[in-house]
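Dear Dr. V.,

Thank you for agreeing to look over these. As mentioned in my earlier message, I'm a first-year student in the group and I'm still getting used to reading structure tokens, so any feedback on how I've presented them would be very welcome. I ran two proteins. I've put each sequence directly above its structure. The first is here:
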Amino acid sequence: MSELRLNPLTGRWVTIATERATRPDEFPATRLAVEADPGRPCPFCPGHEEDTPPALETYGGDERWRVRVVPNRYPAFSGEEPLSVVNLGPLFRRADASGIHEVLVLTPDHDAAFADLPDEQIALVMAATRDRLSAHAAAPQVRYSQAIVNYGREAGASLRHPHGQLLGIPFVPGEVADEEAGFRRFGTTCALCSLIEAETDAGHRVVHADDHAMVVCPFWSGVPYEMLVVPRAHGGHLREADDATLTGVGVAVRDALASLRAKAGDLAYNVVFHTLPHHHESRYHWHVHIVPRVASVVGFEQGTGVLIDIVAPEAAAELLAY
């Protein structure tokens, strides 16, 4: 029988329906090709730096960069004006999409993936993310910053070269606002600190645990093989995390993605960093969502917002544990 489970961070129900996993051809065997013309020069590769706007930050040796941050050539958010809403009638409101949109080039290696990066490269990637989120916090038009890594066309990637997106936006998005409300509903303790304790006791949804982070297939997983990476050190703002925590969380994400590839296939995925909005202070605990793109969102999910997961998180964790 299918089962409903409540996500305490968002207050939304998900459905665990493992019987539907018997449908043929449930998951794609291979990812779609990312680039329509793979013969075109890659703008993120060394030697093609002139194909991007000038770098905002570079990390690594003097002779060759190892991580690079550049403005997105086609920004979804740009401009320095704070959010200003214009009423065009009782039903219509608009505002300029001011903000910041940057590309975080994870490595000079065109053929690598996040799952392939060595520890020292992970440390640079996480430090760059922290530095740029700190810069966003100082921009008066930015209220929230979203860091993401898209892998595969199904997940939204348009270039194969490993890279992420850093978006500073002039409002707090609903997903994060819902999570903030979920932490408030939990009361005087932290929901994710409590999750670490509860999943340590339960054991059967833990993919990995070490001194810096825990990786779980959450009880309320909405998609097959979804994972949640939680820092052991409590903190609301990613940009305030110390070096050891940042690197430890980045390594946990890397290893979780490597396990996903080795045990479930070379699947498309999104890595989504959730952090407290700038200038907010609460009991929020920053964390990372790993969302494989293995199932289509169809009419029921679109119409209700209720996700259906056909792989129980307990089974997913057993497969992915490392």
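The second protein is here, in the same arrangement:
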Amino acid sequence: MSQLRLNPLTGRWVTVAVGREDRPGDLISQQLPVQADPALPCPFCRGNEEASPPALETYDRHGEWVVRVVPNRYPAFDGDAPLKVHNLGPVFTQAAASGIHEVLVFSPDHGAAWADLDDAQAAVTMAAIRDRMEDHARRPQIRYTQAIVNHGREAGASLEHPHGQLLGIPFVPGEIAEEEAGFRRFEGSCLLCTTIEAEEAAGHRIAYEDERVMVVCPYWSGTPYEMLVLPRAHEVHVTDAAPADVAAVGRALRTVLARLRGSLGSVSYNLVFHTAPHRHAGPFHWHVHVLPRITSVAGFEQGTGVMIDIVAPELAAQHLTVVG
């Protein structure tokens, strides 16, 4: 029987519809190739550095770069202007899309993915994310920075080379505002600290854990094999987290993404890093969402905002730990 489960982070209901996974075509088992012009050099490969704008940050090892951060050549947000709203009519409101849009090239290996990073590469990648967020936070017009990784065409990737993006924006987006409200509703303790304790007690939705990080297929999963990466140390901002905890999150991501690939094959996914807005004191607990793109979002989900998960998170966690 299907169940409704409440996501306490957002206050939205999700539907866990066990049995629908048997419908033909519901699961996308393989990632489609990312389309790119093979005649053009990859701008993110070693030796092609001139094909992208000059680097904002470069992290080296043994005299060669291992991570680069460059401006996005086609930014969605650009400029230093503070948010200024213009009302053009009774329902026409606009503002300049000022902000920052950067590309994080997290491996020089064109054929790699986050699942292929060694411990050191995962750590320096997370350090780069933290460092860029610190830089963004110093700019008064930037209210929030969203770090993402789109892996595969179904997840929105336009280039095959492993990379992520950091977008510094002049407003707090609705998803983060909803999560902040979720933390405020959970009075008396931290929502995600309590989630760690509850999932440890339950035991059957944990995809990975060590002394610094827990990865769960959350009880309120809205999509199959969704995962939530939870640092055990409570920090509102990733920029305040201990370097060892930041590095541990990178390694945990590597491990569960490798298990996801081992279980389902090379599927597309999004990584979404959530931290409190700049200069917000909380309540919040920074975390990472892992969102595999193995089902389609149809009319019901788009019309209601109620996601339907056809693989129970308890079963998903079981599959991921068996692979591990």
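From my reading of the second output: The helical segments are 119-137, 174-185, 191-202, 243-264, 299-304, 313-323. DSSP finds six helices and 15 strands in the chain. Does that match how you would interpret it?

Kind regards,
E.
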